[in-house]
Specification:
With 167 residues, the protein is mainly alpha-helical. It has helices spanning 6-19, 29-38, 46-54, 67-72, 74-84, 91-100, 103-108, 110-114, 118-121, 136-149, 154-158, 161-164; strands spanning 2-3, 65-66. The mean pLDDT is 91.
Length: 167
């Protein structure tokens, strides 16, 4: 289960909706943010999604891993995934996966791997881009929603909200 902090998720989701024509289009970030917070976007509420997944956090077939954790230490993230799926990879092969799965590598090869859709999928590949969109009112609303729905649950703690979602 790949997790992402809700501020960066909303930001990426907004940019994705701007270029992916099957998604509803929004005239502004504010209109998107309102729908995102109300769960009126494709796939519904991210807060409900994580709350539902939290029921399975102790299931041996579920491994939650944070996007931000993988960005912090890609090698360790890939190694955890390899071990979880019991792939028989040695250290050299794991390093090769890390190299091929870097954002720069995937973006560079996106035309070959994803065709025209590659431009839609590979935008920045970073963390904390939410700071470029969120006004104080967005921060306050998201902080409140996080506190009400996710702060007390194990999956909410794995988001490292205080690290990635605070100024």
């Amino acid at each position: 289960l790949l997790l992402r902090n809700p501020k960066d998720l909303a930001t990426s989701y907004y940019h994705f909706s701007l270029v992916f024509s099957p998604f509803p289009s929004y005239e502004s970030w504010d209109s998107f943010f309102k729908d995102f917070m109300a769960g009126k976007v494709p796939w519904g509420s991210y807060f409900n999604y994580l709350s539902e997944w939290n029921k399975y956090i102790d299931n041996e077939n579920v491994m939650p891993i944070g996007f931000e954790d993988v960005k912090e230490n890609t090698y360790l993230g890939v190694k955890k995934i390899v071990e979880f799926f019991e792939f028989p990879l040695n250290e050299e092969e794991i390093h090769a996966v890390v190299q091929r799965s870097s954002f720069q590598s995937m973006k560079k090869n996106s035309k070959e791997t994803h065709g025209a859709f590659g431009d839609v999928l590979f935008r920045k590949g970073g963390v904390s881009d939410w700071r470029n969109l969120f006004a104080e009112k967005h921060n306050l609303e998201m902080d409140k929603m996080y506190k009400e729905h996710l702060e007390a649950i194990p999956l909410g703690k794995k988001l490292k909200y205080d690290v990635y979602c605070k100024d």
